[in-house]
Each structure stands twice: as C-alpha cells, then as structure tokens.
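This section describes the prediction task in plain terms. A model, or a person checking by hand, is given the sequence of a single protein chain and must write out its three-dimensional structure as a string of tokens. No templates, partner chains or ligands are provided. The sample shown here is typical of the held-out split.
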Amino acid sequence: MGSRKALILATLLALTPALPASAQEVFVVGSSLGLTGYGSLTDGHWRDGLELAIEAVNAKGGVLGKKLKLVYEDNKSTPQQAVVVYRKMMSEDKVVAFDSGCISAGNFAAASFVTKAKLPMFLCSILPRLPDEQKWAFSFLPPPKFEVDSRYEYLKNKTDIRKVGILGDPSPYGLLMRNVAVEEAKNYGLEIAANETYQQDDADFSVQVGRINAAGAGAIIMIGQGSAVITVSNNIKNLGLNKMLLLGSINERELLIEAGQVLGEQYLFPAPLIQLVVDDINLITDPKARAAAEAFLKPLEAKFGNKVDSSQTSRAWDSLLMMVQAMEAAKTTEGSAVIGAFEKIGPYVGAGAPYDFSEVQHVGITKNPYVIAYVKKDGKLAVKYDGR
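The expected answer:
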C-alpha cells in the first residue's frame, strides 16, 4: 500500500508544472535599454549602474527576503522595439517593476500598457506625456531647463557672446530642450541667431555649423547626446572657427574627453559633480553627498575601473536603491503600494544627485546639479564655472 501511495504522489508531482526559478527565489526588475543605436553608450552605463546596485542589495540579503534579478532587453534605440521588449518582460519574465534607460520615445510608447498592468516605471528619460501614465513613472533625469540654464548663465556672466545658434536632434528629449532653449534665451539677454537640426547618424554637420557662423553666432548650443558631438567638434576645427564656443549637452565621459581633445576649452558642457570627482573627490564638500558618492564609487571602480561613466551609472544606482527602499517600506512589491511608499521617501541624498520625489513631484531632481566643465590637456575633467 505504501508503495502505491508513493507512486501516486510521484505521478502528481510529475504532472505539477514547475514554477520558474524567478517566481520561487527572486524578484525580477526589467529594463528596456538602447544597447544598440544612438543610445548605446548612455543606456549601457545605465545597465552597469543597475547591475552594480543589485549586487550591493543582494550582498545585504536582497529585498523582503528575496534576491533581486535584473532582466534587460535591447530596444535598439527605437520606440517600436521598445514596445516589443516591454511586453516580453511583462509576459515572460514577470517583472515587478521597470527601471529603464534614456530612450524617451521608447518609454513613451510602452507607458500605456505598463500603466494598465500597474507596474512602476523608474526612468533615465523624461516622463511620459499623459497624466495617468505619469502617476506610475518617476524620472531620474535632471529637467532639461537645468541643462540649458547652466550654459546660458555661463555665457551671460563669463563671456561677451550674445548671439547663439542651436543645433539639435529630433528626439523627444531634444525637441523638449530645444523649445526650452528658445524660450529661455531672452531671459539671459541672448538672441537665437540660427536654429538647426541634425540626425544622429549624419556624418557631417559642416553645413549647419557654417550657417550658424554666418548668422553671427559666437556659440553653438548643441542639444543631443551621443558621438555626434565629436563630429561637430571636428567640423568647427576644420572650418577654422577658433573663436566659436561649442556648449554641448550632458554626455558620456569618454565622448566628453574625445571632443575636448579636439577643441580644448572651446568645448564646454554641463556636468554633475559625480562625473568630475573621479578625478578629484574633494569637489564634493557636503558630508552626506560625499558619503553617498564614495559608497557608489568604491564598488564602481572595483568592478569597472575608469571605463564606466559615473554620471549615468550613479543615477541608475540611486534609482534602484530608492526602489528597494520603497519596497521595504511597503513590505510588498505590489505596484500601487510601491508607488505610494516611493512618494513618501522624501528628500534623498544620492550618489548622482539629491532627489525630492513626492505625490505631486515625479521628477526627482529639483535643484540644478550642473557645473560648466571642460577637458584639461591631461584628459581629466575640471570645473570651468560653478555659478559663482
């Protein structure tokens, strides 16, 4: 009789579908990333920051008694592919939240069905457009106005330049910042002499640069991330425009250095201090901010050396740690509870910036984190203007 019971039990167990390891042992966090295409450098570093943070969380026991697992998919820097990978991670990987990269158009395209599934979205990009979607999304990207204001303030306070040209890409972030740049110029006594567009995969921008110069602009306000800034730098140099300033967007450290080695101090850019302290930690004087930076930089340098940009990775690190704090406070990974707990975290000093999310504030960086920086001859980044 005993053997018959054992046989029945074994048969029942064989017919019972095995739960995937992720359902049994871990919470899965999904990330839609542009690992190919124009966003590859930016989103690659965002992935590195997430992986680093998850390793740190799991080393301390995970969250709510389970380890975290990161699942990421390449959206190829396109909104169409982003929809595919978001749906895949929801249906196959059973993610409890998304912590996605900087391809705004891709995050916009997926926001409607992610919201319907009641899954939180922590983003490197700007927020989705619709209010119902914004309730489920949190942005760790400094508002575009800060990036524009830093450059305009430098021109107003430290130069005689009053005519500028805009050179921007057509991405959602680029279009948003272009509008800000046009609107804000008059507040700094600046005139937009030319407003030019480029595509990320263009091989030459000398025509646009030439038109900006012919319009009498003394500086180019470049709007858009990626390697295009190196092409523009070479165009300025080859055209012999040795007095033209190029004020670029936030960008990856390796691209900043390469552009700076072409133009020297003609190339200036907004940068958070965490991007510069790799070369000089003493730039951070606030004890809390320095402690947060050092807690991040130590494992970053141990794993990657100096090969990874600390600006993107630090904000990815911050986003993941804050998400975990919200889950712990909510005592669950259920979406609406995590959203509610996240909104109540309050002021948070992160490695990449201070954040102040709330029920009505889903863009966490509320104070301008940028200084204007340049590339020294030795390839290190340094402060050109800190607002004083």
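For orientation: The two ends are 88 Å apart (CA to CA).
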